[in-house]
Amino acid sequence: MAEEVKLLKGNEAIALAAIRYGTDGYFGYPITPQSEIMETLMDEKPWETTGMVVLQAESEVAAINMVYGGAACGKRVMTSSSSPGISLKQEGISYMAGAELPGLIVNVMRGGPGLGTIQPSQADYFQTVKGGGHGDYRLITLAPASVQEMADHVALGFDLSFKYCNPAMILADGVIGQMMEKVVLPEQRPRKSEAEIRREQPWATLGKTRDRKPNIITSLELDSSVMEKNNLRFQAKYKAIEENEVLYEEIQCEDADYLIVAFGSAARISQKVMELARKEGIKVGLFRPITLWPFPTRRLNDYKDKVKGILTVELNAGQMVEDVRLAVECKIPVEHYGRLGGIVPTPQEVLEQIKKLKN
Amino acid sequence: MQHEIIIAGFGGQGVLSMGKILTYAGLMENKEVTWFPSYGPEQRGGTANVTVILSDERISSPVLNEYDAAIILNQPSLEKFEPSVKPGGILIYDGYGITHPPTRRDIRVYEIEAMNTATNENMSKTFNMIVLGGLLKVLNPVKLDSVMAGLKKTLPERHHHLLPVNEKAILRGMEIIKEK
Amino acid sequence: MENIVDPANLVYDKPRLMNDNPMHYCPGCSHGVVHKLVAEVIDEMGLEEKTIGVAPVGCAVFAYNYIDIDWIEAAHGRAPAVATAAKRLNPDKMVFTYQGDGDLAAIGTAETIHACNRGENIVIIFINNAIYGMTGGQMAPTTLMEMATATCPYGRNASLNGYPLKISELLVPVEGTCLIARETVHTAAAVKKAKKMLRKAFENAMAGKGTSVVEFVSTCASGWKMTPDQANQWMVANMLPVYPLGILKEK
Hints:
The complex is a heterotrimer of chains A (359), B (180) and C (251).
Chain A: E1 5-9, H1 10-21, E2 25-28, H2 36-44, E3 53-56, H3 60-72, E4 77-81, H4 83-98, E5 103-109, H5 125-129, E6 140-142, H6 147-164, E7 167-173, H7 174-178, E8 180-184, H8 194-200, E9 216-217, H9 224-244, E10 248-251, E11 258-261, H10 264-279, E12 284-289, E13 291-293, H11 297-301, E14 309-314, H12 320-327, E15 334-338, H13 347-358
Parallel strand pairs in A: 2-3, 2-4, 4-5, 5-7, 6-7, 11-12, 11-14, 14-15
Antiparallel strand pairs in A: 1-8, 6-13, 10-12
Helix pairs in contact in A: 1-2, 1-6, 3-4, 10-13
Chain B: E1 2-10, H1 15-28, E2 32-37, E3 47-55, E4 67-72, H2 75-81, E5 85-93, E6 108-111, H3 114-120, H4 127-138, H5 144-154, H6 163-176, E7 178-179
Parallel strand pairs in B: 1-4, 4-5, 5-6
Antiparallel strand pairs in B: 1-3, 2-3, 6-7
Chain C: H1 31-44, E1 51-55, E2 70-73, H2 79-89, E3 94-100, H3 101-107, H4 109-117, E4 123-128, E5 131-132, E6 138-139, H5 158-161, H6 167-171, E7 177-184, H7 188-207, E8 211-217, H8 221-224, H9 228-242, E9 246-250
Parallel strand pairs in C: 1-2, 1-3, 3-4, 4-8, 7-8
Antiparallel strand pairs in C: 5-6, 7-9
Helix pairs in contact in C: 1-7, 2-4, 3-4
């Protein structure tokens, strides 16, 4: 049977998709522009249907530590916030990476630094893909560009995070969170039973049975030789993710003379730019990374011999542009265009930048 | 076919919900749709606007800098969005509180006295539906039936008795809109 | 070794859930005794397979090395938040936190108060020794007036450091708490009494009565720079007047 097409905000889609995925728990703290996620969950009352726990925590710090606690029990747990709140969660994210815990974090980005603005931004790219918290760790990062992808990335993020026992983040922004589009939600899946979790996540702290040793979830290891081994194990895992999990979309890149590289809402704007440019006879293609980490470095490298130049369009001062330059080994010009502080660039002004690149 | 529409006014005038009803109507006609609002504190008493795109094809950018139609419900919005209407496009405004009416000659300008009509005819709760009626008359991006079907779908059942009142307001808007 | 004692004559034994790992606690430290009580209560209540312990940052960070149950090691101060999720997602489990004064009453004050205010069905075990032991004897929120530490070497001074924080008293009016008690483990009688209180707290959590907080006024012989015996005497003379023993709240 064809699923019903719904009209939803990106934030609402995340909430409803989380229930459908069979998520065990959501822990959050209100912040614009993503509060609809918890509001929708509270309105849906999933504890009466799937048994999902939804709790408003006393802070973003408490919320991410609730995720840590739930994940330690092998549960599918998530939190969401926006930039300032995500900064507060960084300690917890680092602990999750260090303790090798799965979990989903949603960041509906707004402009910074500091309290900044509530308007859309992509200025947390560096924070998300280069670290954020302390230590040598990586965060699986998905960048939805539509409301449909907001819904789809819930399952994708959880699946990847459980496959690799590593936290994953959906990195959206105020445009994708607040806009409404058509969306088809996934089928309702049952939550995992305790027996299933004990079997599939044998490390989970669900009470020590007589037939096994205690399960201990910790990121602490005072013996440096063991801690180095732990880190090497993490690095091997990150390498495997980089080998196997890269996702991207290419639109009209085959014949392109120029490439726009953009993610999330900037990719949507850039697609319009591409249409406008092609009307004027400039062959522009759009390359959209869907995973920001792992970054599609290898695929982008192929374009260093195929296109004359690249423009990255970001709602920031130039962050992903560094990864694009590395990917093409600086063999072709890679320029950045972005607007700051919550301003979303218009297709027309980006088109002017393409023309500049051409000249 | 693609309609790119901006609706702008004061928060509380029903700008966002008018956009939502239009978007739902598009959904009823199996169109591709996007609805992107201004959000945050500016909703509360400040200016509010929403971009609605209805299209037969996949929609690229939900954020635009020029529009096929602008529906303007206060002076600050008029100043902001009059220059953004595409040449040959449509601007609909409610003259209530407008001190400096539109001046462009390369677009079609319509006035709808929705605020006065709503007040005089006891339709203040359906003010935005009167405006929507005006848009349906002059641009016709979606059918009236689709609007009503969308309304029925989005309104909780306990409010379905209000459907005729809303339809009446839309029809009234169709009557009172006039080209300048 | 086992054959040395005739089981018929056994009057005291190590708790079954405590393993043989050498403890890192200093001689005279209260942690070892409280660990023993926790292990005994879990075993006696038959909760071994249902218990999830949440360890703090501080001296008890390695609690998970000594009691053979499942443990989650929390970030500094966040144990009540971690325990909140563990319990809410597993309502049939026994979830407790084990926290020191810095963890519970300084960096984790918000998590402590809000877990209690939500009436999470968990037990919070609070070790108050008025000093930061793990990091080398710095001032704690519960450090006494005039008491010297590495970060208040001339004694705690109200204008600079404020006053000893009576967090258990603060939690009394918080609606979600069902039991708040203050105990010690410096004598055999005190240990026996403390164990009863701990068991009551665990029973409350399993019965869904709300949050139980059991504070242990404790010694830190190393941090206080005393012998274990001196530390016990100093605690009775100086700590107990500020942190009086007994049940502060029960409902």
